[in-house]
Amino acid sequence: MSETETINEDSNNDEASTSQEQQLATDLQLISLLRENPDILNRHAELLAVLEVPHQSGDAVSLIERQVAVLREKIQTQDNRLCELMDVARDNERLANARHNLALSLFAARDHDEVVSIVLDVLSHELAADHAVIKLFSDEEETIHQSAGLFVDVADDSLKAFKTMLEQKNTVCGKSTSEQKSFLFGDSADSIASVAIIPLIAGANLGLIGLGANDAERFNASMGTDFLSQIGDLVSASLAVHLEK
Predict the structure, then answer these.
(1) Which domain holds residue 126?
(2) Based on CB atoms within 10 Å of each CB, which residue in 35, 113, 127, 175 is the most buried?
(3) What is the pLDDT of residues 50-76, one digit of tens each?
(4) pTM higher than 0.85 for the full model?
């Protein structure tokens, strides 16, 4: 390359650099003006018809068309969110009705066996549990013998797996230990991927409600437990009355 060609190339590079700097300075000035005059498109609506914004497809569209597209996306997002909130509201209403109907049924229960039957039926249907069980504690051998499967010895070593839960009166959703699942669900324990465990406490530890699902996401740790805890309170109060008879 000759000396003349080198000089020309350097000159072209300098001009290109200067042009880019000037364009950048102009862009910054325009941005500053737009920020200071956010209503400029209202005052000069004719600009909407000539301004162009690159679209994702690569084609140029007018600013107003782009604004319409953005508004449609926002509306769709809001519609989706509204549908989600409506689903949550409907689900909450369903659970509230289930809790109300359970309370009425428990008031009419004649003994603890009927309480257990009502509770298991409601929880199985309303919470779509694949397995539902109630274990009640007793220190009377005759009661444990007569209602094997329902009553367990309050001194049973297996209950140590629930010690913290009972002490803190915590309803638990999600995974559980193999000892907990075996105690609650017996031979079905291996097929259960998620559980909810509700302690039954009314002055004393009365027992446990166990709900099991084959779906690992049915009962998960992020679920709210207010509904289950309220069910536990209702059942505990009802059982306390009948177990004292």
Answers:
(1) 109-243
(2) 127
(3) 666 565 555 555 666 777 777 888 888
(4) no
pLDDT digit string, tens, across residues 131-185:
999 999 998 888 888 887 899 999 999 999 999 989 888 898 888 889 999 999 9
Per-residue pLDDT reduced to its tens digit, 107-142: 888 999 999 999 998 888 888 788 999 999 998 888
* CATH number of the structural domain spanning residue 131: 3.30.450.40
CA neighbor of 151 nearest in space, from 130, 166, 133, 172: 133
In a domain, 142, yes or no: yes
- Residue 233 and residue 163 in one domain: yes
Q: What is d(CA 41, CA 64) in angstroms, rounded to the nearest whole number? A: 10
Residues 6+ apart with CB under 8 A from 237: 106, 202
Q: Is residue 43 part of a domain?
A: yes
Count of domains observed in the chain: 2
d(CA 218, CA 146): 34
Burial group, residue 93, by CB count within 10 angstroms (0-12, 13-18, 19+): exposed
Q: Do 222 and 113 fall into the same domain?
A: yes
Provide the residue type at 96 as one letter. A
DSSP strands (E only) in 142-193: 151-153, 172-174
Among 204, 212, 216, CA closest to 240: 204
Q: Considering the domain boundaries, does residue 101 fall inside one?
A: no
